[in-house]
Amino acid sequence: MVRGKTQMKRIENATSRQVTFSKRRNGLLKKAFELSVLCDAEVALIIFSPRGKLYEFASSSMQESIERYRRHTKHVNPTTFRSVEQNMQHLKQEAENMMKKIDLLEAAKRKFLGEGLGACSIEELQRIEQQLERSLSNVRARKVQVFKEQIEQLKEKEKALLDENAKLTENARLSEKHDIHLQPATKNQNVNQPQCNAESSSSSDVETELFIGLPDTRARHISHHV
What we know:
mainly alpha; 74% helix; TF_MADSbox; nucleus
């Protein structure tokens, strides 16, 4: 659950005021202690409750810290104090103005969301309506622009895909044409191959006969066969 923003003004309920004082007092004392330990600083804190009860914290000695403060402020020009006080008042006024502006902006935001319109006059309602119409017109214009940008991107993707498809088709056509040119040469090689085989077989048909004996006997043997 989101906590609401605390308004910087006096809490009217006495019980809530006392509870808030106790919680924030303890937190302030804890922060003072942490500051003195972590930063090795001399810290002195004095708090009086709404009922006049004293709460204090001192990292060393409260009396020594007060004396040190007096010695330090003794040599300071009073004009400096007035300047610091004026500066604080100016900052406080600016903070109040900023809080008022924030409240006005939050109220306007609720009205634009359709909340808290019961106290609005007819003129204020008309201004809110006109502002909403201008805002709606801007939203629609931006929506149309986004649609156009998306359509252009899709067209570019489509063109790229068509170009890629055309390249693939051309490569396939060239590959098919190359295969057709290679087929006649293969057929010629297949036709010439049987003829070469026949010539080689005819040239290899040589009659041979083995004869063992004297040369004269071989001559008579050959003439006998002829």
